[in-house]
Amino acid sequence: MQIDVFTLFPEWFEWFREQRHIKNLIDTGLSLETVDMRATTPIANNRVDDTPYGGGAGMVIRVDVVEAALRARYEQDPVELVQERRVVVLSPTGRPLTDSLATELASEPAMTLLCGRYEGFDQRVHDHFATDVISIGDYVLSGGELAAMVVIDAVTRKLPEAHGDERSALEESFSQALDGAPEYPHYTRPAEFRGWGIPEVLVSGNHGEIESWRRAQSESRRNQREKSD
Ligand code: ADE
Question: How far is the CA of 40 from the centre of ligand 1 (A)?
Fold first, then answer.
């Protein structure tokens, strides 16, 4: 998979790229590159933003700045680019990131992530240069960079190269294998710690019973989450 991240803070991704699981994926073929939108800005003094029409607080990243950065990278009109490539704006106003969206994105050969800052992008970036607008939750971050890392992490762990043990990817929280429910609890040694034991069923050796216990636990976690919504 080929991932490009357009940002005003490319250095944020240096740390991310160095993390073991991402590094392993890069070593086995993932391309993860950053594009500094300031480097190609057509505006004087390296400016990338402007005040919002209609007034109000904050600054908005200009559509011409984003167009210049996309054109420089892909040598193509961004309006045409979206016909053939997934281009994602990170914004709290977008569609929530879910396990199924992560799976869907993982099946793409390439993806571009556009990270906003300040009040985000001019709406015409969403409307004409993007295929998706994605939010990682109902809270506002200071920019799209952390959201982009969340998306990259969730998406790339779906890639077959990400897993030594294939089963761990199949039966995880919100997967089809668990019917979209959160994963069941896990226990490991010691079997007793400060008087806290482990569920007997897990050492019964009865795989059928273990399976039903896990399903029931998953369902009960789903119900708990629904109650707290
Ligand atoms: N940018 C700022 N807040 C965000 C959020 N919650 N999700 C995605 N991008 C964002």
Answer: 24
Helices (H) and strands (E) in the chain, counts: 9, 7
What would the two tokens of residue 45 be?
């003094």
What range defines the domain where residue 205 resides? 170-228
Last residue within a domain, chosen from 114, 138, 162 = 162
Looking up residue 212, the CATH number of its domain turns out to be 1.10.1270.20
CB-count burial class (<10 Å; 0-12, 13-18, 19+) for 152: buried
Same domain, 201 and 148: no
Residue reference for tokens 């210049």: 68
- If one counts the domains in the chain, the total is 2
pTM exceeds 0.85 for this model? yes
The DSSP string of 181-209 is PPPPP---S-S-BTTB---GGGGS--HHH
- Residues with beta carbon inside 6 Å of ligand 1? 90-92, 135-137, 139-141, 144, 147
Distance in angstroms (rounded) separating the CA atoms of residues 140 and 53:
21
- Return averaged pLDDT per consecutive 10 residues of the chain, 229 residues in all: 98 97 96 98 98 96 98 98 98 97 98 93 98 97 98 96 69 89 97 98 98 98 94
- Ligand 1 atom nearest to CA at 142: 2
